[in-house]
């Protein structure tokens, strides 16, 4: 069975202030997902926490990332900066065949790489997520990423699904865990996922890396 995360609904009229620090008190009501791991290497994973809450207007996301060696990539644009950086990611799909699906990647500075895609790795970087809001912060332990996405955007993209249990997203949650090589050597790129994709080489862009985010009432 696919993994499921239950995103709790906020009380009527309530919202979340996205400040990038995770300090807003309503976050305390969220379920905390911590089972991110390295599918392709044997290494104790640094802590990653994911939270989500929702109301009728938005889905609110938060990552708390423990990282003692934050890598921030250089580049002329957001894509180059994000691809070269530590980051967290969320994918969501129109269906289990990933035709199409959507990816949003957030680096610790608040740079965003978003795209529409089709399985396998047919990426359209001209796409931008309508209504996305992001705030981030770096701290002594690592970094925090907060974001909100309109429920209307999921509906428009045909990514908000419904069954007898209510509304849900087919979604993947990921982390790029980079580190500086010894003596200033090449950046070491490792990859963490909520769901083990069960493929031999690192790849999040496969149906087996997705679980379910259920919007519980």
TrEMBL record:
Any GO BP annotation: carbohydrate catabolic process
One Pfam family named in its UniProt record: CBM9_1
Top-rank taxon: Bacteria
Domain Carbohydrate-binding: 18-216
GO molecular function, one term: hydrolase activity, hydrolyzing O-glycosyl compounds
InterPro entries to which the protein is assigned, alphabetical: Carb-bd_dom_fam9
Protein name: Carbohydrate-binding domain-containing protein
Native source organism of the sequence: Fuerstiella marisgermanici
